[in-house]
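User: CHK kinase-like domain-containing protein. Structure?
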Amino acid sequence: MPNDFCVSENVKELIDGIILNHSLDPTEDIKYALASESGDGYTSQAIAATITTSSGIHELFLKCMLCITPTEAMPIDKAFANEILFYDIVYPAYSKFLKDRDVVDGFRDAPKCYGTWQQNIIAMENLKKKGYRLFNCREEIMNEAYITMVLKSFAKFHAISFAFKDQEREKYDKFVEKCHDLLHDEKGNSVIPKLFGGGIKDFLANLDPIEDGEILSRFKFEDLMASVSTSRKTSDYLVLSKGDCWNNNMLFLYEDGNTKNPLDVMLIDWQLLYPASPVFDVSYIFLTAASEEALSKTEGYLKLYYRELSRQIKQLGSNPDILYPFSIFLMEWKKYCKYGFAMGCLAIKVMLCSRDEAFNLAGLDPKDTEQCENPFPKFDNQEEYMKRMKRLARFMIDNSYI
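Assistant: Predicted structure:
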């Protein structure tokens, strides 16, 4: 039967290899379809592949690199290399590490990978066909059930990173050697100001000089950029971290359409995989997703995260009091949580924009400073955006984080 959606020869070659390697013969039919819409992904095209065999149907999700030339400002080839490193090498090694230690509730919160093609295509299980869905961040804010689930998932990932580094240091160091630091250029200069400076400038520019005077006096663009641009490499407790932790890089499973109480979470998009303090991931997801009520319970959520981190490290055979003491975690939270705020300046706007407002990375000119600093020339939800950002700013000030 003819396909409704045409795919490249590279995709077909990868699928043929998957059919062979996973013994999916004899294959009766293969169909392809576009799997995502604008606003769901910014560096890739998503394709759904349905492979019908005599024994059943296999649903795959293919992540394909956009056909745009990689640049220093937009190194999507290195981003895909990081993600392929995770699926081809890191995640299998972590899974074996768990199995060898008989840990049944460790980090398994990433989709199964069926195969990759060079540095351009990743074929995974189609989680949406299993009922997993994106959280509706354009209309809702994560409640306690979501935040608890997400923080525990990240705690599991950070725990196995700590334990693997502790017990398999040579292998861990090889992982790190292959990681690309996408937040610094080849000269070691931070690219955060280029990528996220526009979001911060936009937030500050829309503050009222009288009503928001304290925020303006405490939040200086240059100081904030300096703190988030240099802190990633200064921690003494670096482990492999996910890096890109906003809402659309998580899929949730529900029961009977009950979106208030998710059953499971899967973390997707590992393109910013790189060593960092765990606080970079924790502050990113928590500060961009938390409601006013959640922010008022920050201390409790930090303890929840650390309890799970500690429990996981112990059952993996290492000592959390040596690898990452609770006192150090709290100290690093105070030092590095500015990163989550800085990322929120752009991420929250992305979360609140409508599909027709979402910027198209393929059409973004890295040399166009105005376009890079204002990728949302049309944005109707500015009032809600400023409400959330001012709430975050007050949180940072009231807790002496800035």
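The mean pLDDT is 87. Residues 380 and 386 are 12 Å apart (CA to CA).
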